[in-house]
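User: Can you help me understand a structure? I only have the sequence.
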Amino acid sequence: MAEHHELMGGKLHIYKRDNSRFWQCSTYLRGKNWRNTTKEESLSHAKEIAEDWYLELRGKARAGALTSGPTFKKAADQFLAEYETITQGQRSPEWVKTYALMLRVYLVPYFGKMALSEITAGKVQEYRIHRRQLSIDKRGKPPSRSSMHHETVTIRQVLKTALRHGWLTALPDLSQPYKTSGKITHRAWFSPEEYQRLYEATRRRAQAPLHNRHKWACEQLHDYVLFMANTGLRPDEAARLEFRDVKIVKDHGSKETILEIEVRGKRGVGWCKSTHNAVVPFERLRNRLRPEIIPESDEDEAPPRQATARNTKPRLVKPQSTDRLFPMKQRGLLNTILDELKLKLDRDGKPRTSYSLRHTYICFRLMEGADIYQIAKNCRTSVEMIEKFYAAHIKTMLDAAAINVRKGTIQRERKSREGGEQDTIRTDRKARKDG
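Assistant: Let's start by predicting it. Here is the structure, written out as tokens:
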């Protein structure tokens, strides 16, 4: 049986469980039982700590700072259960797993036992400091700005769930108190000279692969680079693309032959119209024979596994309308060529990936003077995103004639206009006199 003592006139209890060497303390206050451990083996020391704890609780109760109610962990569990159901078919399972991972690894260990009413703007700021120090201790560098943003969004989503269930009366202000706007940066892309080096390298690799068994993969990569840089598709959109989704048409506006693409991806179903330079790569993809069995593997250059097991070459067949344009990922071979050309990192140290071909397409269209609204519609994004990440660093968006204006030029233009007005007045007067 547990050893038990009473303090403060029976309002405070101190006891020791049979399976523990530490003294515990408990009391009943404001309609709720409160318990705590003294972490002391000595009874006299445990009594002192228990009395201090009790008096602290009494003080918080008088000041109205004694918090109770559902915890952050309860709200987090409810959020995950609701979010997976609400976003069924609208968000990928990986997106939901990311929320669960952030909660399990970072947020619940810190906020889990806190009552929802305890989570204030100050507590969230304390978490940011804790999270930064934790990352420096483990990885040697602080977490990225985007990581902290996603974690703050996750906290807000959990608190919104608590608000819907009546566990919270209002949302705290979770905005960053300092550095509310970061640097203006641009996404990794290929300049015209770099893009030319890239597709020339992929063309050479397609014509002369290191191994004959990789020839088909090298030819696919070359057409992939050209296709992506002339359509602006996202990599996941290109991965889902089937031959029946693409049509070669004659554009009435530009009088050129282009591709009309029915896109399925991040924004659902949309449309894309390519440049003229995407037609030839697509025709090569459509006419190229391919192995009958395509390996579902990240190893881009790997031969079909079934054929390898039988030590026979795979049978080559013409692609069907329901086949995908790019049945294998292009990441491995693309990274190899980028490393060979020393183009993997841009000048800011950002890695270039297949997504950089989409950024290259948008930048090229802006440099050619295309309408930014039409680009946004064709790329299934917003004008704001293009202005923020792409247009900010395109020099052709700046009008030097409007920038390099001199004061003397303005005065000469004003005098020229005034002189023209005077000549007009004199002409009118002479006409009236002659009339």
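Now, to help you interpret it: The mean pLDDT is 84. The longest helix spans residues 407-434. Let me know which part you'd like to focus on.
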